[in-house]
Amino acid sequence: MIKTLKTVDSAVPIACWSCFVGHVNFTLFCPHCSKIQPPPGGDYYSVFSMKPRLNIDLDVLEREFHRLSRKLHPDRFALAQENEKQWSLADTALLNDGYRTLKDPLRRTEYLLKLHGTEIVEEHDTTKDNSRVPIDLLEEVFDLNMQLEEMRMARKTGYEDPELQASLTAAKKKFEGMLEAVDRDLRTQWKAWDEGDEPIRQTAQKAMVVLLDRRRYLSNLVRDVTETLGD
Amino acid sequence: MAQGHVVGIDLGTTNSLVAYMEGNAPVVIPGADGLNLVPSVVALDPVLDGGGKPTVTVGNGARKALIERPERVIYSVKRLMGRSLEEALSELKLAHFHISEDVEEGEVPRIQLGELRFTAPEISAYILRQLKRNAERFFGAPVTQAVITVPAYFNDAQRQATKDAGRMAGLDVLRLVNEPTAAALAYGLDRAKTGTIAVYDLGGGTFDISILKLNDGIFEVQSTNGDTHLGGDDIDNLLLTIALDEIHAEHGVDLRIHEGAVQAVRKAAIEAKIKLSTEKAAHFDIELPNGDRYQREISREGFETLIEQVLERTAGPCKQAMADAGITPEQIDEVVLVGGSTRIPAVHVLVDKLFHLTARGKKPHIELNPDEVVALGAAIQADILAGASKSTEEMLLLDVTPLSLGIEALGGTVAHIIQRNSTIPASATEHFTTGVDGQTNVAIHVVQGERELADDCRSLARFDLKGIPPMSAGLPRIEVRFLIDADGILHVSALEQRSGKAAEIEVKPTYGLTDEQVESMILDSYDHAEDDFAKVLLIEARNEAETVLAAVGRAPENPAWELLTEEERATIEGARGRLAEEVKEGEDAEQIRLATMELDHATRRFAELMMDAAVSGALRGKTMESAGEQLNEDVTAPHAMAPAEFK
């Protein structure tokens, strides 16, 4: 089930395994003999020949994803020699990971922030506190949690409280509205980052970290309310 | 070895098929009995000489044995593929075969048949070997490479078990393809479509739903969901349970203790189920051991009420798949129905409701035979992989992993590192460190599933990162890379970054066979594949020749013989003598085949004369049948003595 796979991680000049002509830049195929190359060092943006930006053209991204898939996919190397098979697998994983990250606005933002050395809390990182309540929401969250608990208890006893239901539905709507506001703010910061110079970018990065935290918190709340209301 | 055909195999719970690409169209390869479907049933009879190797029967022959000697027969083995002991036991509630008791924790369960024991992949390998032989017989050449389909919702262990079975059968499994995706390929081949399609696949033992986006030859799966414990088997079991209970209550006969009788009732239940897809009612009429008859009518309505709960279980996965793909029913352009169970009218009603079809003036696609469509798709994927044909060179399948991959974190919770519905191949890199000064290994537990707690997910592997240089706690930085390949199977590699040392990983799969075990289970025939194949060809060539010789031997009795010239008769006699000699003395299949063709050629005019006689006989008022009798019954028009065609 589990085997060791070696990948080559390198940004230094490297000779093509097939024709031995050296190449320096990020490349999935040898510019000289067009043979597939081991995964080159470089970020997801370079896979798609894109500049690292937060506003990207998703149609271009998809077209490039399809074009590269046709050339790199393991289905194209099913009968190739073992090394090419392995590189096709590793390159396509890189392509797919990159596409998955860049096409999603939040993953893209997190990724770009990470590229620029900003520490962000990852979804599944349990070592860091993932549940900081934004100060301005403290009171509302406290009330909401009480109501959610009440609702769950009522459910268990088979008792439906229409008032509670209405109140929770209203809360859900309110938090959804806040989510939308966060998304608008994020987009503003995207634009600032994409177009700004280094100091502006630094400011935007800090703002985005806060917005992402807030967004994560809000979407968890909305999820909890939806689940409690849902069944 | 020369590159032969790459075949596509649908290894089903109930039936299996093998197909290949003939020019621009996929075609199912029939077995020696002329039938496309090979029942996934294996009979294993012990050999009396005590050689240890059982006599194996696969397909229709084994299905007959199911009633005569059920204790030697295994069916629906797909339900046991990649299952742990506990899971296997719950799968077997209504099946008669037994899991051997002395299996240790973490070992692959073995099915006990008398004194023989088999793992599920071994049984599947027998089915695969039969399909391989059918294809070899058809091509007249060895077949060593295949694409095998699996339910989209199969987990890592189930996929690995399927690949292991392929290897045991002597097949290089070039790719595992998800069944609904294969079906989409079969439907999408002839039209370069753009749009979103949903494939609803309700087979014998599994249910899958996949949503795909088609774009200029690229089939991109958006999401998939399903249930690997849901299918036609469950419907059969409902009918079976009712019948057994009623027989017990009304006639005082407990059939459950007679395995053969249970199988007979199961067969009747399946027939009733099939009938109810086209008729308003079906009848049970079963003779009981005490001479009584159990007779009962089941109406279509009664049947639909009975199975409602089973069918309703497909709704949840469909809704989840749409939610995961971020689409509403209205955004689905086409719905394709796959799997024998989709012939049930109630399934059409449910699908219509789920995807709002009638409301939008649409109908589900059922143009291709739902039993064959997956195998046809597998043949197309085989052709894509072989890269040999113009008709598929623009096509590419981008599939997803059905289940999230996670690592057990502190407190038994799961940290998901590759989300479900990620396009495969996919990878994730995680960093680990030590918690104690001087610690030299770190244990990692990898699981698959959506639940929050590791105990609720499927355990894939536990492994130790060993050989970490002793350092202060928290200082080592071990990078572990998880990679899911294009078959949906996980690979893991690790590197200690401070020392640059590749950590030695000891892999302990929670379930599944080791490489060595698979190696030892490779079916014996594979060791002598070339020899065996030559023998098979020789036997077939001889049989063919014997048939033709027998037909020619009877030729002088036919009135048409008199119409031949002296010279023609001499040519036939000469060719016949040479073939007879070749069959008696020759060991070369090719020579025998050439001599057969020579005789066939020599008798061509005779065959035509016979046909003319038959036709004019019919014109004189005789029926074709009686004319046929004159020609001998085993001779079929148009060319009485044509040998089977070797392609």
Number of domains of chain B: 4
Could you say which overall geometry of chain A the principal axes of the C-alpha atoms support? elongated
Q: CA-to-CA gap between the ends of chain A?
A: 39 Å
Mean of pLDDT of chain B: 83
| SSE order of chain A, one letter for each helix or strand | EEHHHHHHH
CATH fold assignment of the largest domain in chain B: Nucleotidyltransferase, domain 5
Shape of chain B: globular
Rounded radius of gyration of chain A (Å): 24 Å
The CATH H-level homologous superfamily of the largest domain in chain B: ATPase, nucleotide binding domain
Q: Could you tell me the strand content of chain B as a percent range?
A: 15-25%
Instruction: Let me know the number of strands of chain A.
Output: 2
Biggest pleated-sheet summary of chain B: 6 strands, mixed
Structural class designation of chain B: alpha+beta
What would you note in describing this structure?
The complex is a heterodimer of chains A (231) and B (647). By secondary structure, chain A is mainly α. Chain A has two domains: 14-103, DnaJ domain (Helix Hairpins); 135-230. Chain A contains seven helices and two strands. Chain A has helices at residues 44-47, 58-72, 82-103, 105-115, 138-157, 162-195, 198-230; strands at 14-15, 22-23. A two-stranded antiparallel ribbon of chain A has the order 1-2. In chain A, α3 (82-103) packs across α4 (105-115), α5 packs across α6 (162-195) and α6 packs antiparallel against α7 (198-230). Chain B is of the alpha+beta class. Chain B has four domains: 6-186 and 378-390, ATPase, nucleotide binding domain (Nucleotidyltransferase, domain 5); 232-310, Actin, Chain A, domain 4; 405-520, Substrate Binding Domain Of DNAk, Chain A, domain 1; 528-630, Up-down Bundle (Substrate Binding Domain Of Dnak, Chain:A, Domain 2). Chain B contains 18 helices and 27 strands. In chain B, the strands form seven sheets. In chain B, strands 1, 2, 3, 4, 11 and 12 form a six-stranded mixed sheet that branches. A five-stranded mixed sheet of chain B has the order 18-13-14-15-19. In chain B, α3 (120-139) packs across α4 (156-168), α6 (232-251) crosses α7 and α14 packs parallel to α16. Chain B is globular. Chain B starts with 5 loop residues before the first strand and ends in a 17-residue tail after the last helix. Mean pLDDT of chain B is 83; it is low at 525-529 and 618-647. The interface between A and B is large, with 29 and 48 residues.
